[in-house]
């Protein structure tokens, strides 16, 4: 095992020593550290060798008597699969704990060589993509469609951090990360998309966009997927938000990367080790439609206690080694590929038995926002209207629209403040909905040529029957919604700034309707008026579901 003396490698050695009788070769550039770890393997089954994974050849692997080659060294970001090539040439099975998106994406280039040698070579036998995909497969077995997947890893603050882990995080902090959101490939800054997530049994923590192989693998495995997000979080808000601030010079292109600052960051984080806890967690959330076609939300979550969180990335590799060395197990087909669809979740969870790690699954069938607001009336609307409002996973629609704008300085000021679209006779429009069943709200984004504006919707007040509150930044409008066989109507009944109601006499008024045209398309017609000013904006047009993934234009 190369990197067997590192933060994860040493834990993988401990797992092999505790649960198997296999001999273990601990390899690395620092022979003294490798020897110290090798001595922890009982009954003389451990030995150490000096080996540089960046320069190793097939002859060296044969010479040390390796049976399975494991790369736990890292960081894998920007690295080349030198050790994997050597293992394949030597005819030896290969596994690694790679979480580098570029490394895993390029790995199948070794597939032809691995097949020719009859060798199994698996990359990413770690938390991502092996464990995340195994959990997702278990959650969504038999589903008709998987529409949204959100994965998060939030370690405890007292979890040990190695220099390679710090370099891996800093390699993407502030850098552009390509991510699929609401049916469009977007570029978002690494450690951006800040949110608060809940891991059952652990509570709420900050989490931000993390560049991992799942961002490519999930969209490739699930054709109907509209959103694939992977976030990571630091337990202490000061550290998490501090890294967000530190990444700004990279976002603004004032610095090429934060990697050169890895040692100072590691020292700073180490100085705060006494704060926080040794409790970490992971969650995999799937939104879509189950075998019966019902809107469904399913969550697999993990909580690690007593500092056992750093063992989690090693467990898929441990399960894979167990399968490769078990004569009674079904053989893994030869070839070089990511470690997905190879290990069932139960096999990985079985490796947790000796550790303070527990998992759980939660499944529910949350009603979409407008179904909750409209009650029985929702089912009476036309199918095209229900389709637009009826998903708990992210959705995307495209069509054409006409936009009229009022005149005057007041109209220009308000339109600029809320980024309302400019006037156009006929142009393309794209509308996306990103429901958050946990928060009970939906984020709507309307994209016009050169302009997009977003809002958040949730039920207005307790119960919220017949009323929806739509937030535009700090301002909100209360909307009365009514359903009928022809479609849906909405009207403003009040407005507020934050929690404070604003004078009803000054509230905007609206004429908003949703219908179906002769071609069966969803039609919208929304006009917004300001007191004493008149028309603010009036946009109308049609939409159809957009099943094709797009490249978002800046």
TrEMBL record:
Residue ranges of every copy of the Saccharopine dehydrogenase NADP binding domain listed in the record: 4-121
InterPro entries documented for this protein: DUF4166, NAD(P)-bd_dom_sf, Sacchrp_dh_NADP-bd
Domain DUF4166 residues, every copy: 382-543
Domain of life: Bacteria
Protein name according to UniProt: Saccharopine dehydrogenase
